[in-house]
Every structure is written in structure tokens, then in C-alpha cells.
Amino acid sequence: MTPSSPATGTAASPAEDRAPVVVGTPGSFARSVLDERHPALLERVRRATPYPPELRAALDGLLEEVTEGVIEPLDGTEPGAGPWLAWGGGHYGRPWSEVPFLWAESFFYRKLLAALRYFRPGPWQGVDPFAPMKAAELAGGGVDSEFAALDRLPGDPPERDRALLHAALWGNRADLGFRLSAGGTGPGERATGLVADDSARLWAVLEASAPGTVCLVADNAGPELLPDLVLADHLLATGRAAAVVLHLKAYPYYVSDAVTADVLACLARTAAASGRAAETGERLRRALADGRLELRAHPFSCAPFGYDRMPGDLAADFASATLTIMKGDLNYRRLVGDRHWPAETPFAEATAYFPGPVAALRTLKSDVVTGLEAPAVERLEASEPGWRTSGRHALVQVSA
Ligand SMILES: O=P(O)(O)OC[C@@]1(O)O[C@H](CO)[C@@H](O)[C@@H]1O
Looking at the record, which segments are called Disordered (predicted)? Predict the structure, then answer.
């Protein structure tokens, strides 16, 4: 994969003065992820699978590096090490907290897979270290409740649209990374109302032209991916889309991000269900088999950059879509840029480079946000200091 330009994250950019790139400043949310979530994740991975001694030793080495060391490049013999050398330019040899947060997180996940020999031929090749956690989530009772809720969907079409859009939106709270910090209980009680709501615009964009292709850029597996798949089925069934292209991650990433195996696991879960869940699953299987639901796992999906650096073939994909729907917090960070934007910065301005109409469905789990009204920001700042990262708030934003 070759992003349109190599990025070190240190080059000056016009946005830099107004919106500095997020790094792990002491006391920041980003720093807590680097100092707390990443070590906790290494421990969780180690407990989840009985890795042999050499893999456990590699995990120990990574733990030492992220807690006490500086960023070391991938071993030169690691498959795919080349691009990371180019992308890492000025970052190697520096503390993890001093480089762009998005780069540091992405590289952490890549190093974790290197430690576990995910890309090397041999018995551990292709073994998803997060699979045990994803499987437990998918088997959980929460999924049964979601399936039961499908049987109680409102009959009124606009109400049904809203219910399915909101299921996909709030499904983004199902992020396993969230459980790894601050007591590990997951996001707090969800807030009523959205901090920004362009839902009407989203449906209007889909209805403004003949049914075309919708790109749905997935985020987490299991309890988030299921309502995303249900939304994809709804877009196809209601003629809002002639085809849906579901963009997945190219390899395990940010703990619970969805890869192809996770889509198949969701379909297997629906096959074991009854009622609407089973019917939806059956339609999705047919859509996959006849090409109306297509899976893509572009290498850029795990690159440590924003979408403003996406390569031409991916941009062409999004350009040809009636609408691209970006799910989740990380995709939002990559869409608008992982920067400390003033929250009132118009969403359309931050996404002006995007090659087609784009929507974000996201719960707020990081410092980055755009497109809010000033009074709403003042209210949130005054009443709820952790509103940007608590996962209690959500938004639907559209730029078309
Ligand atoms: O993309 P998702 O699943 O909604 O969120 C991923 C996430 O939890 O990971 C980062 C911390 O690791 C946060 O910035 C972000 O909230």
C-alpha cells in the first residue's frame, strides 16, 4: 500500500496552528490509552490464549518497550516492514507519547501482531489474538436482546429507519478497547439526544438519486457489526442502495475491529437465531452470494493516517458511492483528522477533501470533534467534563 504521500506527522500543515495533532500529552486521554490501555491489552491477550514461550517473551518485550522504552522499528525480516520504515520516519527512537497518537496506536497494534507471528508462515499465522474476546461478546446475551428487538421494530417506515440507524449508531458503544481502562466497565449510561443530528440529510442523500452503491466503513465486530449488517440489509431492502460495499480491516486492529471472519461469525449467529434476525441473516447471505453485499479489506484500513492521505483506488471507491457511511470513533478521527479542532469547526470543512458524500455515525470516545453548535459545547463543558471521551454521547453528521 502506498499512501498518496509519506507522512511523518511532523510536517507543517495549514491546519496545524488551528488544530494541533493529538499526541500523548501528560494528563490527556491519549496518554491514558498509551499508559493504561495498551499494557492492559497485552495482559488480556496473554491471558486469553496459551501462547508458547517465545511468543510470550515477545509480548513481554513489547510491554517493556511501551512502558519504559522508545519506539523501535519492526524487525527487518517482518513481512510488510518496509512501508512502516518509510511511514515512521522521525518517530523511531522517540517515546510513544511524543508522536502522533493515531500513528502510535496503529503501530502498537502492528507490533502486537508481529510479536504473535500473525504475518509469518507457521502455526500462528493468521490467528486473531482478539478472537476469544470477540467470540465472548458475540455469544453474550446482549446480542439475543438485540435480535428480540428486531421482532418489535416499528411498522411506520420513518420510525423503522430511525430505529435501525440508531441501532447502528449506538452499537458503536460496543468497543472492547473501552473495557480496558478506568475500571473496565465500558461506557457510561447513554445520553438522550445526539450532539449533532443530520439523520434527515442522510436519508435525503440516499433518496436523491437512483439506487447506487453505499460504502459502509465498518468499525467493531459482534454487537456493533450486527446492527451495521442489519442497516446494510435495510438499505438494500428499501431500495436506498442497489449494492453495499462493506469495508473491513485488513488485519486485527484496535482490539475489536471487524475483519472478514467477524462478518461470517455474525452470519452464523443469525443462522442460529429465529424470527427477523434469522430472516435478515438469510437475506444477507444471499446478498453476499450474489454480489449486492461486497466485502473489501483495503490495506489502508490499518494505516496510521487520516483518510486525507488515502490512495487513489480507495478514493475512487468512495467517489463512486452515493454515500459513504463511516462508523465509529477511530474512523471519525481518521475522517476529520486526529486533531484538537475547535468543536465548532464545520464538519464539511474538516471533510472537504473527501471525494464524495460522507456521513459519520459515531459515539464520542476521544478528544476529536467537529460540527457542534457553540451553545451545546458550552453546556457540555460546564456540565460534564468527560463528555468527549465517555462514550455517552453520539452524533450523525453528513457532508454532501
Ligand atoms: O473506533 P471505535 O471502536 O469507536 O473507538 C476506538 C477507540 O476506543 O480507540 C481509541 C483508544 O484506543 C479511542 O480514540 C477510540 O475511542
Answer: 1-21
